[in-house]
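Good morning,

Attaching, inline, the backbone tokens for the sequence recovery test we're adding to the shared suite. The designed sequence is right after.
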């Protein structure tokens, strides 16, 4: 539970990192043969610990203990995808879908893995399937928005970003609206989204990484890296996407990008 809070509820990661680690370690100590315990530890090591080799080891241990535990396969696929090991990641996601074919979240994670592998057609297919399974699952609309934007369908991406925002009540759809508006050249509207997100951030925690996406759409490198530095300061969990996020591609040659990846300790995608 503690590991999920910063991902789904916009809780500051530093507020729960120690609790998440302690709970996961205690679960493994209590039952070393429980696949779910090793998977939970791996999930914490990935998102909050930023120790990807340890995360992979824990999740592989979980898949050995219970080869039919879908969550272990999908989380392992997530780790491998963010490390740039795309063929392995897609194989793990496919195995997870065999075990849990009706999960909209698994379809979204499959879309994310395909998106990060630059297979945008497959990303779109998986995101649409998530929406077929649950039309009100906001993350499916986020996944579809980014897949469409990557393919140049900015009008469609804007519709999906707005639907994600309507359904979620969080900033993830809103900042993707700002990203798409920036890509469309509608910079005044994108900066209005920035002002709205910054207003929300004065009231409750907003991951700075989310704000950085609007700057990415605007092509504003200085704004982007300022937001990412704030993200690093609070150990923003979404920084785990930096090595492979297509939205970051225009900025990969900037020395600030490589310096940040190295400080985070992530494997850089070449």
């Amino acid at each position: 539970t503690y590991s999920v809070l910063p991902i789904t509820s916009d809780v500051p990661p530093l507020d729960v990192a120690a609790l998440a680690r302690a709970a996961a370690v205690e679960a493994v100590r209590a039952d070393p043969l429980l696949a779910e315990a090793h998977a939970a530890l791996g999930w914490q090591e990935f998102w909050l610990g930023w120790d990807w080799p340890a995360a992979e080891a824990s999740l592989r241990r979980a898949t050995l203990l219970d080869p039919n535990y879908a969550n272990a396969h999908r989380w392992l696929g997530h780790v491998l995808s963010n490390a740039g090991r795309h063929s392995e990641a897609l194989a793990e996601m496919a195995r997870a879908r065999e075990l849990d074919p009706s999960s909209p979240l698994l379809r979204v994670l499959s879309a994310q893995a395909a998106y990060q592998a630059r297979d945008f057609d497959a990303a779109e297919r998986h995101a649409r399937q998530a929406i077929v399974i649950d039309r009100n699952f906001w993350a499916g609309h986020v996944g579809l928005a980014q897949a469409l934007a990557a393919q140049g369908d900015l009008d469609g991406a804007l519709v999906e970003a707005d639907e994600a925002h309507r359904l979620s009540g969080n900033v993830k759809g809103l900042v993707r609206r700002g990203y798409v508006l920036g890509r469309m050249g509608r910079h005044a509207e994108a900066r209005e989204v920035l002002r709205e997100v910054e207003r929300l951030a004065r009231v409750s925690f907003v991951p700075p990484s989310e704000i950085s996406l609007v700057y990415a759409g605007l092509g504003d490198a200085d704004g982007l890296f300022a937001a990412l530095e704030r993200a690093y300061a609070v150990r923003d969990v979404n920084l785990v996407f930096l090595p492979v996020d297509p939205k970051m591609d225009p900025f990969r040659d900037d020395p600030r990008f490589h310096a940040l990846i190295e400080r985070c300790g992530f494997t850089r995608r070449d």
